[in-house]
Specification:
five-stranded antiparallel β-sheet; 186 residues; 2% helix; single chain; mainly beta; globular
């Protein structure tokens, strides 16, 4: 997989741990330049929840989009975004050994949401932003990543991933399921 200056869109097709395909659809558009990795999640789901407003809060309880990125296939960042624009991010080799990134550094990650539809039947929105590569040590030729959509606190929780996770219970913090991605910055 390659990420270039031209936008490339990927459809999430791994509905995990009892998630229903008809309830939620997700795509992720990625592009990059010499400075930043740009992302845009396009989501349609039954419920839009955005209660967590502080960075490094419990964003996975909300309508949450996640981009996990590793510079070395050993340690990784978990960029977890609430639809409120709050961001939770840690860095380390696994769920237990991953201290949270300082909230001042998180301000470098641009975030924007556009709600296209929100009613009793469904919500549609676009969540986009950018991650500065150098500041997060991600200015490499090859990165390793996986991306997710979840909502643990929704009336009907769901767990969807870009690349499959072959485990019996919900756990996105599994670097062994990340895939290599080549950044073409020129």
């Amino acid at each position: 997989m390659e990420i270039k200056k031209q936008k490339q869109t990927f459809i999430f097709d791994n509905y995990l741990w009892g998630s229903k395909r008809e309830d939620t659809t997700v795509s992720l558009t990625l592009s990059c330049d010499n400075e930043k990795l740009y992302f845009e999640f396009n989501v349609t789901e039954k419920e839009l929840r955005r209660m967590v407003v502080e960075d490094n809060g419990s964003v996975w309880l909300d309508s949450c989009m996640e981009l996990f990125i590793s510079p070395d296939n050993v340690n990784y960042y978990n960029f977890e975004f609430s639809a409120s624009k709050a961001l939770r991010c840690g860095y380390g080799p696994n769920r237990q050994e991953r201290p949270l990134v300082d909230s001042e550094k998180l301000k470098l990650v641009e975030r924007e949401i556009v709600v296209l539809e929100n009613n009793n039947k469904r919500s549609r929105y676009s969540f986009k932003g950018s991650i500065p590569l150098k500041e997060f040590g991600l200015d490499k030729e090859v990165l390793y990543l996986n991306a997710y959509k979840c909502g643990d606190g929704l009336k009907e929780p769901h767990f969807i991933s870009l690349f499959n996770i072959d485990l019996p219970n919900p756990d996105f913090h599994q670097i062994k399921f990340f895939k290599p991605v080549k950044l073409i910055k020129a």
